[in-house]
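Notes to self after the call with IL:
- keep both proteins in one doc
- input above output, always
- annotate only the second one for now

Protein 1:
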Amino acid sequence: MKKTIIFHIVTLISTSLFLSLNLFDPLVIREHLETKTFDLRLYLRNVIKKPTPYNGIAIVAVDEKSIKEIGRWPWKRDIMAGLVNKISEGRPKVIGIDIMFSERESKETDGKLLAAIKAAKNAVLAMAFDVPTGNKGKNVAPKDIPDFLWDSAFMVVKGEKEIPWREWAVKPDDVIPPIEEFSKASTLGHVYTHPDRDAVLRWEILYLQYGDDFYPSLSLQVARIALGIDAKDLILYGGSGIGLGDRVISTDLSGRVLINYVGKEKSYRYIPAADLINGIVSPSIFKDRIVLLGTSAIATYDQKVTPFSSNMPGVEKNANVIENMVHNNFLRQSPGVIELIAILLTGILIGFFIPRLKAVQGAVMASGLIISYIILACYLFIYHNLWINLLYPVSNMFSIFTIQTVMKFFYEEKKAKEIRQMFSSYVSPKIVKELIDNPDKTKLGGERRVVTVLFSDIVGFTSLSERRQPEEVVSMLNEYFKEMADIIFKWDGTLDKFIGDEIMAFWGAPVEQPGHAELAVRCALNMSDRLNELQEMWRSRGGEVLDCGIGINTGEVLIGNIGAQGKKMDYTAIGDHVNLASRVEKLTRQYGARILVAESTVTSIESLIEKGAIGHFELRDLAFVKVKGKEKEIKIFELKGLKQREKTA
């Protein structure tokens, strides 16, 4: 009972801990550990159900080839103007330019690029924001806000008053927009990103709060124009989502969404900028497509670390986000209800059943629950775009199982040690092992059981003690007892005690031994044969020769740990049949026999004798005798082994 209570306390502590972790979800754990399982599920998703990149997006990349052919980066703006014009010729739905034009170059080249932007009529330019580390939720006083930025801010902002979503918005303290002429001729979108603590970019921030206004990301602006949605129909529902025409994109309180990456870099169609400039690629491939213009060359330093890649160009990250918005298939993070239920249910199941199951059964159950939850998590991720926490429920299950298994191991070790200490001086190592493997068989405390009892006593021990020095007597006794004890253990007997020169042993306890009478008889014959050999050895040494009498009886006794609790206890047998076995042994002197067996024992092995299963012995019907303490006479038999019979013949 005490052990079970401790197991339940362990379950309660572990489950409470992981429920708390799931509720508060510390970033240090989520962004260093749980996100790794997120990445693995993305990989698995692409193995089982690899998504097909949206064909409506094309990337014009300033890659290594383009830099080699056109010249070092950054290019002159007249070159960029020609590139934008080439793209515009293809009549794309929108051109998203993920390149910063925050400084003036020259009146001539700036004018050419401005003309190209105006001619396109659908260009979205990138603007950068400076967000101090750890500013989320803090009120940052921005510097002077250029008037031309307001045209790109959300026109409609709604938010639940009871949700302090504005406190969670990302708030930059400075902005780096394109030059004023470019900004007025285009739509602006921010390109601020914030990777998780392991430096992997998994989230897109769809809006920033700068001053009192909110500014969409470049990807959001590109998707809006591609879908033909007017700026006034782009609605910010603070802390919950963004209305994009007739669809709503759900966000967290900070305006973030989980990017559903289609794969590693180069998943979308790339067109080298040089090929377009040099006329190798026709602008017609851009018709009715979303075109993103950006850099991919390593030297341009716009690479992002994603779950699939450590070298994805930022422009392709934008392509993934835009596709997610067009198809409204962002990944979603579970609010935590599924995880709470899983932690509670699996904690209760494992905590209740593991203490009651064997090690293998417990391992199978715990493994089954863990694997089932992992399969559920992968299924929801792959087929429903839902990211449920894998770490906390699995860790709770594993912790409860491991701690309880270790506790059971130490408890069983302690119990096995107690059993070994308790019985190693009584029974053979084979029976000790069986008791350790099946501790319930001990049933300590006393029970009634039919056993076969053997007493053995040295003949003439008193006179021997008077003739010899105590040291010599003890030496002979030790030699004799060792040999006899080894034989008792050999025949799986329980050595009860040494009483002076007397040995008491029994069979049938502490474990069940259906053939206990047969084992006792065979043991007695073996003891007699070994005693003959010892006598020859003692004679050859010129020393005293010991002889013994052996009495055997079978019957019901009370057996178990008997004594003073916590002081001195012995595993022994008591009862009339124990006394009868002792008195049968005493009759060996009267009848001049070494082994006498009571009728109850002979009856127990009678069928074996008739079948010839026991051989090499002689069993002689000796007499009916009346023993002390018994009114009814009992029948006794003399048992002789072949060696003893030859010796007395």
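Protein 2 (the one to annotate):
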Amino acid sequence: MKTGVLTIHPGSLLARLAGICSMMCDELAPFPGRSQTTWRYVVACATVILIAQTLQVHFLAISLIVVFFTLQENTVLTRLSGVRMILGTTIAVALSLLLIKYFIDIPLLRIVGACILAMSGMYFMRISKYGSMGYLIALWITYSQSILDTYDNPEMITRLILWFWVAVTFPIIIAMIVNYFFLPAHPGRLLNDELNRQLDEINIQLESKKKLLTAPHLSLNSIERGILTLHKHLTFATLGEREYQSNQAFHLMRITSIDRLHTAAAQLSQLVVNNFTTEQLNLIQKLQNACRDLKCSIENGQKFTFAAEQFSTRPALSTLDITLYEMIYAFQAASEITRTQAGTIAAQKTSSLVPDAFTNPVYLQFALKTILATLFCYLVYTAVQWPGIHTSMLTCIIMALPGLGATLHKGILRIIGCIAGSVVALIATVFIIPHLDTITGLLMLLLPMIAIGSWVAAGSARTNYIGVQFVFAFALALLGRFGPSTDIVEIRDRLIGILFGIVVSLIVSITLWPEREGAELRNMLARLLRSMAALARAGDGIGTEMDKRKKIDQARLQGWALLTKNREMQARVALEPGWQYAHNSITIETQNWLVQAQELLFAINWLQTLLQHTESAFPKPLMNTLKTFREYSAKRLDQLANSFEGKQLIDKVLTPPDLDSLLAQARDNGNAQTEEIITAVQTIYQRIVQLDEHITPSVNPLSRLS
């Protein structure tokens, strides 16, 4: 039937192109902090170019890429990465000089020694939290072999190696200075900005409901990102700022309170309200005032005061009342926190090495296959006498990541960035470079391209490496000499080298000890289910209301964190070659499964919130039945977790105890929150059945809940 509307099949080429365009728009869209990060990249790169061109420092393209590796999302990470990179580079240069000193005239021993050092670096990268130092050692030891094959003068080789140390070290220092003084991203400031942003979102929801307007929907993804972002900023603020170190517990409790407010605001955004009572309007206005007061206290570093006595203590009569009362309790919790009462959190000492560093053969296999791929590229370009494709060796080291999916993902990004940078460099070489004769003209050409790459590099982990590779390929082609370069052969050679290195790395990774994450994904999914079971049980057997809320908050946070980790791992597994046949069918629909898990996590949390605010309004038998249902849900989730882990199911058909009786009791009670309780119970039960259907076929017994 003709409807006059173009219909696009979900699996068609047009649908896929539309999906790609939508993803690109999302990846390139601005977000808080992206423009500041881009400016820091551009200022640091401009400074490095001016110094390198003025003082004729070699390896300018490498200096620019070092800027991108050093500059991180905040000042603490930048300082840590900079120090580790300087140490790693210094050790790598020292080892290279030792190889030259003893084996420059014995190529076989020099190559064997380089392979052993590079393999040791890659092994260290996998077993230590300081693995970036090992990565730099492997990368430089590999790159130095191309220098040794190009020059036969020991003095020239030594000077170039020492120049490399200068070319890496000075941009690290420049990047650290720029990051600290130019639009500095201090983690404490980032934490306060995120707290204020969430308070603004909460205030917008309250204002829109008060005026009966449609407010932007607060999705579950925004709640998940919000709480995890707050904890990430607090972690780095604790590492870098003394005030946060001494008052970590205080800030953690404040984060928890605002997370509860944000979650309540998300529930508020889903409510359809046509009118308010006078008392509800007054309550909303007071909550808005509390939002502004809390925001001012965060900005000024003052204590937040909140008088709960100004609010009515009448029982909640609707879902709106429950949501608003949840906000009241969250504000009250925020006001009751003091720095002296919160105290400090004892720092947990962790080993710098992973627990199975010397027993797990995977780490050694990873290092060995990386070096085998690198050595193969070295032998090929040496045998065909094509030194221009020495970038294939570096590509093998750069592509070395745990997991086939992560390796393929980085390879795709590297190809896209390299092709884009090479094409732009080719156009500039043919049409623009011949007309340049000053450093000003060179900067006018370079800085816009660096700004474009920086904007992409400041984005999400899904695409940010494209920006880094774009700048590197562009600079490698144009900044190889201290003057205008019109040699397009280098652009061709380096592009071919990168593509060849990616192909070799993927072939070796797939055929030799492939690291697939399918089994680990199933274990991670099981952990997520167990965290939701813990949330369902949270608060049982705990005396004080504060301790009960603390347990619920901790369980919810763990659930959000595991949900994010599952999404990241699922995205990597989906990129693994042959994943459809290597893992069970659960992998095919894992993305939809995780969406349902997210909704279940939110539903369990909402049921817990309902019970906290309506416990006195329901008779004890009904509350006991609800407790039994929560225990049933927890046991069912534990059973599903067992199935993910391959354990035998016990009592597969687990009937919800007295579920029909629960619904009947709720309806007979006649309380205003009856329908909300029924909806929450039905939602939880439906989501559990849907999750079960993705694992093992089962009969859907939802008819008994309708």
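Annotation: Residues 477 and 490 are 6 Å apart (CA to CA). The chain has 27 helices and no strands.
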